[in-house]
Each structure stands twice: as C-alpha cells, then as structure tokens.
C-alpha cells in the first residue's frame, strides 16, 4: 500500500515531505535515506515492517519532494537535526522513536543520536553504511593501515568538493556511468536534483568535522551494519565505535553499499531483531 504524504516545516522554514505507512498505534520507526537517494528507497523495507511499526520516511532537504535550499550552509548537520526534530515532533511527540538510516542518513543520524538534547527521543538506532563524521575524524588520526584504506575508499569525497565540474558531470550523464558500475544495481527513482543538491551535504560538513572532530557519545542502543563489499565505507570505520557508543552491536554481512535497495528483507529482519532486543519483545 502506498504511504500517505504530508509536509512538515523545519525551524528555518524548509518544508519536508513526509511519508506515513500507517499503523499509528505501533512503535514509530523513522527511516532516513542517504545520498543520492530519496525516501522512496525505503518503500520495500517499509512494506515488510508496516505490520510491526508505524513506519515514517522523509525526503532529506534537497532530495525528493522536500525543499531545495540553495546555500551550502543550509545542509549543515545542525540544520539536518532541526529537520529530524520537526519530523519526530510531528509524528511522535510523546514517545521515543526507533531510527533506521543508510549512508548519509546514518551520518546525520549519528549526529542526532550523540546529542544529549535528543537522548530521550531515540529508543534505538540501526545504522547501515554510514559513520559519524566526528568519529571518522578520530579514526583517521590513527594513521593506521585501516585509516589509509578508508581514505582510498573515500576518493569520491574529494571529487565532490571540486567546483562546478561534479554538477556538470551529473547533468551530462558522465558521472552516472562511473557510479553505476560501483553500485551494480538499479538506481531508479532518483532525480538530477537528488544528485546535485546532495553534494552540498559533503561540502557543508566533511572537511570541518574531519579536521576538528568533537567527542560525541551515546548510550542509545546502536546496531552498526557493515556490508563487507561496500566500496565506499570500510568495516573498521563503521564498527570501531565502542569508545563512543558502548551499547553497540555489530553485524558484518555479505553484500554491497546499497543493501536497502538490493536486500530489503535482510534489512527488515535486522531491524526486527535489534528492536526486539532493545524493547524485550518476544521474550
């Protein structure tokens, strides 16, 4: 069944498209997509979880049907946190929510989960292929073989910081051919705006966070899911976080970066398992 659609407005006036898969009496699960996706990516996962959760997805600013701010500063993590807060205030003002996030959705969700102001609003966090940028800043300072390997995997981040050329490459279709080979999956449902606007996420946050990382901690139960064939994010970067998140469980699985698209059944099962352990369901 297709979700109902509404909008909510963030603190700076940005309108966000919100998709509600029903089951309003169930625990709320907020799904946050990454780059260059939009909330439609979560459809197959939401369908599998809709009997157990009140599933909510939203288009991150710049993507899908949400507003597309023109300034790079509008995509800073603190602005994304205001968006998240606007969504949960609208759909679950009185109960903590479970969070499922992928790629840049996970990067921003780590920012939310490690903010003491939101500690009592988040019941659990399932993170797929996305680290905290602050944690990554400390990880890369180790100057270890694992850190060097991650830098090699992160080549595209330096590319996204180039002026004007990455936008041109997306608009002309050149970049699609390169990234399609890396994704090895159907990337349907994306617009040029999803590709172009989302690069501002990198430009607004990556360099400053890696150079001057903050010590961000959380006691929220976290499931860190690392596909072993991810061409962009290595397993150590995602899973060596017990210093910051002592209540973390690690799952290294077979598969690639776009696991929510390619294997929604596995994603749904991981969420069920994690939230049952957190909430004591089925015990």
UniProtKB/TrEMBL annotation:
Keyword Hydrolase: yes
Keywords: Hydrolase
AB hydrolase-1 domain residues: 27-141
Name of the featured protein: AB hydrolase-1 domain-containing protein
